[in-house]
Amino acid sequence: MTKKESKEKRINDIIDAAMEIFLKKGYENATMESIAKKAGISKGGLYHHFKSKDMILIFVNQKISEKLEEIGHASMEMPSVKEGLLFYMENYLRYWLEHPVETTFLFLSITKILDNSELLKYYQQFTGDYIKYLEEAFKMGVETGEFIPHDTRTSAVTLAAALDGIICYMILDEQLNIEEVVKRFEEKFIKPIEKGAYWCKLIK
């Protein structure tokens, strides 16, 4: 194992340990010592990588967001904007539903936003990038002629809010499945702005 690989493994061990400690003991009761012990490193070794548990909390959130960014990049490889958006919706929902630990950690982090200015800044940046990605996708759809001209900012914000909101309902109601939800989202957010649907309305 190279020095770089060894460092990456140590960081991953710290992340796994921190997530477990935060969720089991609660953020307030978690200590750097308990995280270090769980990760199998010395307290000094932990401080070498992270100066505080606040820094660990933010870093873990950044690692989770990287997975979501990968979904965004993959969606841009789809043949059309519509297919890209549908791909993103499905895999965004699938990620949170298939990773309950990360989802629980997200909810825990959100409860700390008002107490942690750095975490608040991080989520403001993350949300801004999230909305920007969706807005750019809708704009591209207009530019390529797939979608009719419309308020792309509003489309992005409402879709983002709907995606994040439905996750909670899907956790509580197992009868809601991803395929059906994505189909409904397509009907509500995509079909009304498709070029073909627009011309059909004009003819009628």
From TrEMBL:
UniProt key word Transcription? yes
DNA-binding region(s), chain positions = 31-50
Q: Which GO terms describe its biological process?
A: negative regulation of DNA-templated transcription
PROSITE patterns assigned to the protein according to its UniProt record, in alphabetical order: HTH_TETR_1, HTH_TETR_2
Q: Which Pfam families match?
A: TetR_C_5 (PF08360), TetR_N (PF00440)
Entry keyword set: DNA-binding, Transcription, Transcription regulation
Q: Which Gene3D superfamilies match?
A: Homeodomain-like (1.10.10.60), Tetracycline Repressor, domain 2 (1.10.357.10)
Keyword Transcription among UniProt keywords: yes
Which molecular-function annotation in GO is an example for this chain?
A: DNA-binding transcription factor activity
Q: Where is the HTH tetR-type domain?
A: 8-68
Query: What is the name of the protein in this document?
Result: TetR family transcriptional regulator
In its UniProt entry, the species of origin is given as Methanobacterium bryantii
